[in-house]
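1st attempt posting a full record on here, be nice pls
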Amino acid sequence: MSLGILGYDSMHFVVENLERSHAFYTQKLDFKEVARASQSLVARSGQQSLVFGAGGVRVVVSSPLTQQSKAARFLRRHPAGVMSLSFLVEDLDKTISVLEPRGGTLLAEPLLERDENGGSYRSVEIATPLGDVAFRFVERRNYRKFAPSFEDVGDGHSARPDNKFGIATIDHATSNGLTMQPIIAWYRDVLGFEPFWEISFHTEDVAKQRASGSGLRSIVMWDPKSGVKFATNEPMRPHFRDSQIWKFVDDNAGSGVQHVAFAVGDIIATVQELRRRGVDFMRTPKSYFEDLPARLEQLGIRNVAQEISVLEREEILLDGAHDKYMLQIFMREASVLYDDSRAGPFFYEVIQRAGDEGFGYGNFRALFESIERAQKTATS
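the predicted structure (as tokens):
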């Protein structure tokens, strides 16, 4: 039975430097500040929280003011990262009635608030196999604020702020763990998600004589009704500990959300402007573009609207099949962007889809090898 998920509601980050995050979202990504924690909530929670919006995307960023706050407890165990993901649901009672018999672990009793106009906000959080990452399910009925004890800023949470890059939705989220089967089983057995896509490879496939190298297995699970998708990665032997998946888990002090993808309508213009604003992207090997024409022919993709030379210049990846394709690129992880290990290994992806809804074997592999090269450079 479906949980009644309608889509993403928000994502919640914990950081040590809230001012830096404010600059990143507003100046780099052109998000608008749409809400913030009220003074009473700040006093009760011991943390400051800001909400940034672009179209239907909402990102909450919290920073601790006291050592007793949830944000401080998270940061004692991890660098900056995702503490929770929230999903809109049709009927919270139905969601709970499906979750609990399947083994969903509620972290507290459901929250309820009614506003002055009779609107209601209801939510509940559950534990996940992703360490300290929680999932929250939210039911909104004519409730205009972001959440109880939050105050609107500017045009407020209920507006759909224009974004220069056309960011309006989350395409997918990706998590890393040292073993993914417990995570996949939880998506299947507790959330009721279904398999969507999977892949496995090892860099040893390409260079048999390498003394090192690594690989991964990845499975994407999804909720067919809402289209919400989660990819999960684990390292693959040999050289298990050389894998960038293992390094993420090590840097993050446990499993967690590795990246979130924002969907855009014109990835070339987006990447060019983000570069101008100082955003750095993971490098793509020149060999990727040298091999691209032959690979596109093999995949049956003959209708690419973008100039391949421009994609190569901007290092944008392309994959798909049968005249359906997608374009994607990955920002540097936060610790590299800020030259600060406490900023964490999380990063954002930018994706434009032209009919293809998959994840792309070639792109996935190019990303994996790109991250590995960057990590080796950083440690050499």
